[in-house]
Design brief:
binds flavin mononucleotide, single chain, about 15% strand, 7 helices, 5 strands
Length: about 200
């Protein structure tokens, strides 16, 4: 199983990185082929609405997204890890997602064959507050991201009330859950289905 972890926080050693590492560790232990991509290290332009992708299925912007497109196509499992920034995903994660409009165009405009079937998606997120609606924006954006790249929204681990760097280390039960989920995904198990709707 190819498990691709896309990490969208700018803070090295922060809560979402620790959470993602736990999942990837589990996946690797279970025999998965694991790769972690740090969006903070990549230069990814926001979508510029050129709409060339509606004709070709390719984005004409030549930047580090070029390295990520093939990984998104090849992965059996795509894990998006992003903290909540202003009730949404980080700008790094959102820029990457918007650039997958090229894949959305392949699927829904050009009606091309697209890898899918067994492919699964997972959202990992952390937030400082305990707000009831704090993950709503991130879950919706992720739902449609996973749809654009044709992976099933299979699981999510959303952690409230972690703020300082490393605060999540004080929540060993959550890290154990992430590792266990990684083990299931790494050995190719189909996990559940996240019901995003109704959104709250
Ligand atoms: C710019 C910014 C905006 C944030 N917005 C929110 C927010 O809307 N709601 C919330 O609960 N936490 C918010 N936080 C807190 C982070 O979500 C929280 O600290 C998270 O655990 C950080 O994860 P990381 O260490 O992986 O970056 C914000 C933090 C920053 C830096």
């Amino acid at each position: 199983m190819k498990v691709l972890g896309i990490w969208g926080s700018p803070r090295v050693g922060g809560n979402t990185e620790v959470l993602l590492d736990a999942l990837l560790r589990g996946a690797q232990e279970a025999g998965g082929e694991v790769e972690k991509v740090a969006l903070r290290k990549l230069k990814i332009s926001p979508c510029l609405e050129i709409y060339k992708c509606f004709e070709t299925g390719e984005c004409p912007i030549k930047d580090d997204m070029l390295t990520l497109y093939p990984k998104l196509l090849a992965a059996d499992v795509v894990v998006l890890a992003s903290p909540i920034f202003f009730y949404g995903l980080t700008a790094q994660a959102k820029a990457m997602i918007d650039r997958t409009q090229a894949f959305w165009a392949r699927r829904y405009v050009l009606k091309q064959e697209f890898p899918g079937g067994h492919r699964q998606g997972v959202l990992l997120s952390t937030a400082a507050t305990k707000g009831k609606h704090v993950f709503v924006g991130a879950r919706l954006a992720t739902y449609y991201f996973f749809d654009a790249i044709n992976v099933r929204y299979a699981a999510e681990i959303l952690v409230r009330e972690v703020d300082e760097k490393g605060a999540i280390l004080g929540r060993p039960e959550v890290l154990a859950e992430a590792e266990a989920l990684g083990r299931r995904l790494g050995r190719g198990e189909q996990v559940g289905q996240v019901k995003v709707f109704p959104v709250v």
